[in-house]
Amino acid sequence: MRCNNNCELHFVYNGTEPLQLKYLSPDKTYTFHEDQISKIKSNLSYTEYENRMSWFFWDYLYSYNELILVNGSNIIISSLLCDRLFIHLKENKVEKIKRILPKIRNCR
Predict the structure, then answer these.
(1) What is the pTM of this model?
(2) Using alpha carbons only, what angle is made at residue 97 by residues 46 and 89, rounded to the nearest 5 degrees?
(3) Judging by DSSP bridges, how do beta strands 8-12 and 37-45 pair with one another?
């Protein structure tokens, strides 16, 4: 998957090993397995957080996830890059955060 700022996210499935993720940005590359993720902070709109009916088009338009790795690195993945992250990752490490308009505050 590729987004506008030349970031890429690749999911590598191998039948015997845990899911491997490769995140490429213009300045860094991260390669890690799913079990190296210590926590996922999922920043959602109120509507998406509470799984309510959407009244406005922007309710489900944008969110982002912050992957916190065991080595202390943080990787921010917006819904524009991967809107269905939890199809690939297990949700047992997810901390959902409710925001009026979830915008990324610090990209680096």
Answers:
(1) 0.79
(2) 110
(3) unpaired
Q: C-alpha distances in angstroms, 98 versus 18, 31, 92, 95, 105?
A: 30, 29, 18, 10, 15
Bridge pairing between strands 29-33 and 74-78: unpaired
Q: Is the pLDDT of residue 34 over 80?
A: yes
Q: Tell me which residue has tokens 């939890």.
A: 86
CA terminus-to-terminus distance, the chain: 20
Whether 106 shows a pLDDT value over 70: the answer reads no
- Are 101 and 45 in contact by the 8 Å Cβ rule? The answer is yes
**Maximum alpha-carbon separation in the chain:** 44
pLDDT digits (tens, 9 = 90+) for 58-87: 777 788 899 999 999 888 888 888 877 877
* Domains of the chain listed by start with CATH number: 8-99 (2.30.29)
